[in-house]
Amino acid sequence: METRSKSLERPPPIINPHPHKNRPMKIEGKSAIIDKSAEDVYQFLSNFNHYEQLMPEQITNWNSDEKSCSFTIQGMASIQLAFGNNEPYKKVELLPVGKAPFNFSLHANLMEMGTSTKVTVYLDADLNPMLAMMAKRPMENLVNVMAENLKKSLD
């Protein structure tokens, strides 16, 4: 009978003690180059009344004023947004207000390039693995459509 040395035994597999725990997820959209100054783009993005034209078609029941908006994602949830920590001519941050289906923040980063501005829209979300699988494609669509529509609106 052979005895195995302890050093040759495999360690036990690592098991995630919290398999359903939320994990941070960042979804970055395609960048858009807009033929406007960072100041002009920032001023546009600093007013929620301009956001309806940036949203995908699945957004309904749009209401807004300069500082907040609310809408329904068709077949899903109602969301209300307000501005977070904006940095003039560099970053606009949108945060959920009240009850949201998950914790998230939506951002537009601005980088002036001569007479144009490069805008990158991205979303940070805390999602459990199952929700992440279901929501990834719609969130990618959101950030890409917002960047495309921003370019269309300002060029």
Q: In what range is the share of β-strand residues?
A: 35-45%
The CATH homology group name: START domain
Assigned CATH architecture: 2-Layer Sandwich
Summed over residues and divided by their number, the pLDDT gives a mean of 87
Q: Using only CA atoms, what is the Rg?
A: 21 Å
The rounded distance between the terminal residues' Cα atoms is: 80 Å
- The class by helix and strand makeup works out as alpha+beta
What proportion of the residues is helical, as a percent range? 10-25%
Q: Can you tell me the CATH topology?
A: Alpha-D-Glucose-1,6-Bisphosphate, Chain A, domain 4
Q: Please give the domain count.
A: 1
Question: What is the H/E order?
Answer: EEHEEEEEEH
Label the overall shape: globular
Number of strands: 8
Q: What is the CATH C level class, in words? A: Alpha Beta
User: What does the main sheet amount to?
Assistant: 8 strands, antiparallel
Number of helices: 2
Query: Low-confidence parts, pLDDT < 50 over ≥5 residues?
Result: none
